[in-house]
Amino acid sequence: MTTSRETRDYQAADAAHHIHAFVDQKALNDEGPRVMVRGDRLHLWDNDGRRYLDGMSGLWCTNLGYGRKDLNAAASRQLEQLPYYNMFFHTTHPQVIELSELLFSLLPGHYSHAIYTNSGSEANEVLIRTVRRYWQVLGKPEKKIMIGRWNGYHGSTLAATALGGMKFMHEMGGMIPDIAHIDEPYFFAHEGNLTPAEFGLRAAQQLEAKILELGADKVAGFIAEPFQGAGGMIFPPESYWPEIQRICRKYDVLLCADEVIGGFGRTGEWFAHEYFGFEPDTLSIAKGLTSGYIPMGGLILSKKMADVLVEQGGVFAHGLTYSGHPVAAAVAIANLKALRDEGVVTRVKDDIGPYLQQCLREVFGNHPLVGDIQGTGMVAALQLAEDKATRKRFANENDIAWRCRTIGFEEGVIIRSTLGRMIMAPALIASREEIDELVGKILKAVDRTAQEYGRL
Ligand code: PXG
To answer: What does each C-alpha distance from 432 to 42, 159, 404, 439, 440 come to in angstroms?
Structure first.
């Protein structure tokens, strides 16, 4: 597909009026952004007809890939029938009701209620207020501190930024009171001699120390991504989550899982906490809920929490104009039905996920630039390293990984770099041929990077 306007023309108009996310806008204006115009399954085309294999599902969200006619039809039907109505004024509509029924049929049985939002950031904003409200209703209003993790990511609105652990975001006006952080469980970065299991326990026990430091009577909840996404696709050792859960239960601290990236099949389970085997009290969701076709997020509550809020809480003053938007709900229903009825999640677990993981280990297991491979299902990271055995990282790992990502674009593959990690999270519907293309193109990018840095 070509559009009627030249890329340069689009870029000039974009530079004149648009401030992009997480970028030096002046530098981007000089460079000119890519103008994407079309998508089909895992592929994207830019305004000049260049084709890219999207190894990131957009921003970890197009779980069903691009070009789904069923999602398009669901949105069009709903736009014709009832494009908008709200959840205020004692009103509801069939789409949000049916979405909830479907969601809770897919979730483990101890969850019962949802609060809908438009994004993951909003889900986490709502989370803070809901968790605090829960403790207020139970007569413990002093329990309001949320503990997150350094380098965690929970969104870019104010409270979501504060919950996250990106220091550079905190420094840009992104901190609020009553938020604390503990370290992330990043085993490869650990410089001591602990085994992964020992390290996982040690990292989890920081939570206990932090709760004791702050006072258990003041701590409302602990929030974390089951595996860290934006922070570098960091998988905790197996010992980590059971210990975190033990500590939360012991001190009566709510365990809040941010499933914005991990949810809706990414790991081969419907939700990433199921893969890691723990039971959070709340789940923040977004992205894969609609496969990114339309904005929608939400906060899932355990029955235990919902009972307190509904039965004893009276009015809870929350809500957004677009909470439970009918068009978004209609798309979410079509998306969840496709993920379920086409066996997409099952296939991630039994077939295409293991295939991706096996290909990566075969191709990069002994690569001179790669020190570690982590991942499961349709998410993985290659840790670049100077020395695999001693887990020595490159001093300039950021630059090397960024260069690799840039070469990836030249080779027609989109992957993401964070610190010294190359990250991929392709659409869950990928065929084996598409995985072969993905891994082949990433290999070209990693090889070219290794050559440039004298490692090959
Ligand atoms: N929680 C998690 C775990 C996320 O990854 C959010 C919340 C916020 O969601 P919204 O819908 O408000 O953006 C996210 C978002 C990246 C990248 O480069 C990741 C996200 C967003 C933008 C970029 O990895 N995740």
So the answer is: 12, 41, 24, 10, 12
Mutate to test the pocket of ligand 1, among 22, 56, 59 (most ligand atoms within 8 A of CB): 59
Q: How far is CA 319 from its chain centroid?
A: 23
Token readout for 333 is: 């229903």
- DSSP conformational letter for 430: -
The answer for residues whose C-beta is within 8 angstroms of residue 262's C-beta and 6 or more apart is 225, 226, 227, 229, 271, 272, 273, 275
Give the model's confidence band at 4: pLDDT under 50 very low, under 70 low, under 90 confident, else very high. confident
The pLDDT value given to residue 3 = 76
Which pLDDT tens digit goes with each residue over 71-112? 999 999 999 999 999 999 999 999 999 999 999 999 999 999
Quote the pTM value. 0.98
Give the span between the Cα atoms of 276 and 267, in whole angstroms: 10
| Residue owning the nearest CA to atom 1 of ligand 1 | 154
Helix (H) or strand (E) holding 360: helix 352-364
User: Which atom of ligand 1 lies closest to the CA of 230?
Assistant: 24
pLDDT tens-digit series, residues 278-295: 999 999 999 999 999 999
Output the CA–CA distances (angstroms, integers) from residue 405 to 58, 185, 286, in the order listed.
15, 25, 26
Tell whether ligand 1 has an atom less than 6 A from the beta carbon of residue 155: yes
Domains, the chain, ranges and CATH? 34-67+343-452 (3.90.1150.10), 70-341 (3.40.640.10)
Q: Give the pLDDT confidence of 148-195 residue by residue, as tens digits.
A: 999 999 999 999 999 999 999 999 999 999 999 999 999 999 999 999
Residue with CA nearest ligand 1 atom 15 = 155
